[in-house]
Protein 1
Amino acid sequence: MVIKHKNIFTTESPWSDSGKVLLCLDTGSWRTERPVLDVAKCNYCGLCALYCPPQCMKDMGDHYEVNLAYCKGCGICATECPRKAITMVPEGEFSDGDS
Amino acid sequence: MVTASKGQVRVITGNAVGAYGAMVCRPEVIAAYPITPQSEIAEQLAQFKANGIIDAEYVEVEGENSAMNVVLGASIAGARVFTATSSYGLVFMYDALQEASGFRAPIVMVNANRETPGIHAVSSGQQDMISARDTGWVQIIVENDQEILDQVIMAYRLAEDNDILLPVMVNYDGFYLSYLAEAVEIPQVEDVDAFLSPLKKQPPRQRLVPGLPIGCGTHGIEMGYVEARYKHCQAMERVKNKVDEIDKAFGDYFGRYYGGQIEEYRMDDADIVVISSGSAAGTVKTVVDAKRDEGVKVGLIKLRLFRPFPAERLIEVLKGKKAVGVIDRSVCFGWKYGPICTELKALTADFGPMPVLSYIDGLANLDITVPHIGRVIDEVDAAARGKPYQDVTWIPME
């Protein structure tokens, strides 16, 4: 058998750099609500990033910011935030075209 | 040649042996849920942990699905892991089995073979492992207590080899071996360390690290998935020779050889062959000896490796033989032969036309007895001489 396929994974197991291979498609387009952070309330504890299922919270040094290309709007970050710093806001209230 | 020092000999049950096998390999994370006839392994490992004999995280879980997912997570974080199950515990982790092999996680699991339908079938039989055939795991069947222990050690050497990286299931007959106490030599932990030391000379395997998001698993679509599957199947092919090599290395060091993929017993000048596996193979050896005394040139192939199926070695040893009988301890729904016989029949074109007789026996705690095996050998012998034969026989039904 002549293999014409060029390997996608460089390792024997299907490991992939999530930034390059996995997180390459905009999968947040069907979100109905987005998390909005009140930076004044945030104490940078990191629980939102820890609990985020697609791991799309970006570490900004003193707070976390959501990457809207991958956020599905599940609201777990808002529920887990001990300081209630995150509010889920319906996408209809935004006009930035991210939704 | 460097050899291992003498181990401690103890008379312990097959289940305890499974726990000792794990203990001497120093797993870092263990998660197991008790199920008849495996419970003693979960208990014994918890006792080892309580007594400080093992330095492992022992995660108490609420079921087998969690057990497999816990050891899977720990394995892809780089830990050496161990779990044990049986019957519908194996069924309950069916999806996790496929996740684990898709992740190419080198998990070692002991499975005490038991019939599968829910809580009702509390009896021995290989149906559980047979039904997990296509989950991508390496499946090995052992015959006695010492072999359980030795095979667990060899399983780590196989699973964690960077050429392989596959989960390995070590199967033994539940009830028969799980509760059978035999004298077993337990190797020194330092000697097991030495035997497993080639694994440490490899580049460390890719693993999950906190703070470094990375993806793994056969989660892709289209070509990413196809590539992962292709590599998985290629690794399965490499398992066969690797099992033989590891068996040789184990025997050279510890003094016990098992034959690798298959054990050949009195096969050299045999005209006819019985294929069997698990604890029944011990009985078959006794009957083969008796039939040899009567002048019947019969040999036994003990199938040790079920997945991948040892096609090449079976073809090699079966070529030129006159007839073969296969004793299966499970059934194939919708295919009249036993499962191992069905697989063997796929090789008929390669090992040459000869009568292949399928026998179903030993289901649900029924013994595969000396008279049963004697009858198998007589019928295979008659078939080899050109007499008509039944292609499938359910021995307990006649």
Note: The radius of gyration of chain B is 21 Å.
Protein 2
Amino acid sequence: MTKLKVLVVDDEPGIRSGVNRIMRNFHVDYPFMDEHVTFEVLEAETGEAGIEIIEANMPDIMLLDNKLPGIQGIEVLEYVRKRNYNIVVVMITSYASLDLAVKATRDGAHDFIPKPFTPQELRSSLENITKKIFLKRMTKEMGDEGRQIRFRFLSVLSHELKAPLNAIEGYLNMINEKQFGDQIADYDKIVDRSLERVRGMRTLILDMLDLTRIETEERKRVMVNCNLVTIVKSAIDTMKPLAIQMDVDVQLISDESIPILADCTEMEIIFNNLISNAVKYNKQNGIVKCILSAEEKYIIIKIADSGIGMNPDDINTIYDDFVRIKNEKTRKISGSGLGLSIVKNLVHKYQGSITLESEPDKGSTFTVTLPTNSTSL
Amino acid sequence: MRKKTILIVDDDIDYLFQLRFKIEQFGYQIITAESQKEAESIIETTKPDLAIFDLMMESEDSGFVLSYKIKRKYPDVPVIIATAVSAETGMTFDLNSEQDREWIRADLFLDKGIRSDQLEQEITRLLNKE
């Protein structure tokens, strides 16, 4: 529940107590606000007393009479504007001349309520103001949050980019200082590791570009009829060299053709990532099964591996940016930690879903469900 | 005289390998761990003479957590936090103020790119402080 402070500045006691009465049981809520807003009324008899209350309590809304015993309402308004206080001001005045109205508007008055006003008039004016204040706050909050997420992303990204550079630099220094002696063969291990880190860094940069393009929608999407089977076949071919090296058998179980209205590049990104993970995190002599099936409304793709699997704790975090599961079994496998984040992003764009079943040392199965007629976002 | 033991914890296996290689040359015995979790279980049973922790491992503050835990168990073991973080995020922390020392229970922050001779000097200084 949010409480907004309303300050009434008026020398007529009847107006002040009237406002108090009207606002006491009034609250505002909207379907898009998950809380309702109530009001607390503060009263001032003069402009001077009003300013004191402003300084002490900083109201959100001020109902301001112009004709006051000491300084005039318009001067109170000026005071607020000069200090850039965030107060929505409504002039309540019986002698509203055009001249005054223009000056007050220029000084930032939000609304005019002529005296005498009915409770309904006051309520509807405050309802509008509340909505405006609330939206302004939400916008600001969302902006701050966005900036924060972006900042976190950038700082983690720079960490992820710097780590391989440091490692490679360290190895080059060791070579430069001939730390292992004069036999070139003695440096094989650290040269291999350096190359591995370069590869990891390249993957990271490529994945990051994918992610940025997806998020900013810079890449023009071309929605055509793609054959998913062709796309999965080509992803399997791409992973062949590694699969052969690791003795992993990648099998495709599917009909000849499964059409989907989609951007083919995006489909490629999804299945390249999933199949490459299934091979990378597999074991010697392991199996990867890519099972595609089309139902009336959905296409279901299962990528099942017989690899190292995951703990239940890890399953919850794997779609987050830069998350890589680190343990004895994954230490030598390089990756950007962005792949699954990208996949999830894309699958959601097609109003699809991705689920995971996994058991340590048995393997993982990712199931992607895509609607055949997705009204893609 | 018994060789002094240094615990090094870093989730980057290459950095760990390089640091181990360097510090072994200074004449110390090395124990390594690749994660906060692994380090915690080592600390349970083993008291090193000095510990070097990476800052960002499982979480962004793994290094702080480890220093806190090791200082609680062995208050006299000096702790170095090796990091490249300050330059990346613009975050700065050093141990000059009493307030920082209060919550970051480390004795020294080192940049990961530190030269070997400087590193050796700092280790010697910390070990002789006791």
Note: The first strand of chain B starts at residue 5 and ends at 9.
